[in-house]
Specification:
This protein is of the alpha+beta class and 433 residues long. It folds into 4 domains: 115 residues, N Utilization Substance Protein A, Chain:P, domain 4 (2-Layer Sandwich), CATH 3.30.1480; 71 residues, OB fold (Dihydrolipoamide Acetyltransferase, E2P), CATH 2.40.50.140; 147 residues, K homology (KH) domain (GMP Synthetase, Chain A, domain 3, 2-Layer Sandwich); 43 residues. Helices cover 42% and strands 22% of the residues. The protein is built from 14 helices and 15 strands. It has a 5-stranded antiparallel beta sheet with strand order 7-6-5-8-9. Helix 5 runs antiparallel to helix 8, helix 9 runs antiparallel to helix 11 and helix 13 runs antiparallel to helix 14. The relative contact order is 0.05.
Length: 433
Amino acid sequence: MSKDQNELNFYDALEALSELNSMPMDTLIEKIEQGVLKTVEKEYPDCDDFTVKIDKESRQLSVCVLRTVVDDEPIDLNEINIDEARTIDPKCVLGDRVPYPLDPKKFKRGAVSQAKQLLHSDIREHEKERILADYKDMLGELMTGEVTRVIGDESARGDFERGAVKVKLRRNELTLFRNDQLPGDRFKVGDLVCVYVSEAVDKKIPGKKPPKVPVKISRANKEFLRRLFEREVPEIYNGEVVIQGIVREPGVRSKVAVYSTDKDIDPIGACIGPHNSRMDNILKELSGEKIDLIPYSEDREKFIASAISPAQVTRVIFSEENERSCVVYVPENQLSLAIGKGGINANLAVRLTGCRLDIKPNTPGAFAADAKDEKPEEEKDTEENTLSVETAEAAEQAQTEEAAPEAETAPAEESASDAEEAADADDRGDLTD
């Protein structure tokens, strides 16, 4: 292959590299010149000055060391005899600096490898900057792209990339990592996927590792669900219905608290839509995740009762010592429904309300037991004394009846039985009160 053909292929390769990485040709040439210059400086540490130039017109790469013209024998590569110098520049005189060409093919393999690494690093940094510029305006928004590649275990560069997918958004490919996917997500090449642009990092944070990617996309972020509601429910987008809070166990269950700024609009009905159309569109994007719509209320008891749904709450009792703690009673047959599988429903309710919830079954006497525990000590002592006096009187009456004649045994037993029943009834009445 001729020298001209080599030079042509070199420049053609630069153009292809420029197009592949969406990098302007001038920027790519500048990066290559800087990389080659660093390589030459390492290859010739005793030389003071170099020039590296890629000429667009001649499509050639030239690497030169600047040598000072002297009239005697040069002591190192920084000098050149005037006779030799005039073969390069016939008009040169003593003291001039003449560009003496170097052959890049004679560079050591290590130096060439270093130049390649520098170039790759520069291209990656440029790619990050370009991607960041493309998506910075989309931070916090939804985007829909096409899956171009599913990264399996054999092709993953590490645990962080295992199970990830490449999604083409606009003109770039972004990585949707496994921990940003939903547990039920199963993608294949060509699928359309909706994602939320969760991060766009443009600067390195001191003391922290630089991010693996400048732009991060997610489907597990709770804001992904908020944007879906804004997209599907016009009342939320317009501000007529407000999302007060969202708590989420991605792919399993979410609770969304909403209220209306217009008394004529039902916030729950607006979110569900005609024939469940709006909610169905949202659920299609969530791979089986369930959503509980909670009507928000300033009444804490009412809000907590709603947050426990789908279980029905019979009563909420707040602690006197801690206003952020309460006992929630539900029907006994709905206790497991209120807690949820693995405690998910209760945990989401706690996060949504900001209160510590002690969920108990509504069994007979449950309210009285908790009410008794909450009574002041003086009332408890009074009740205990009253019960003790009643018990003593009943015992004394029983002893008197045992000493009666045998002839009156039957009537006495009937009277004692009646007395005991009456005493039991009184005791039960006192306890109930």
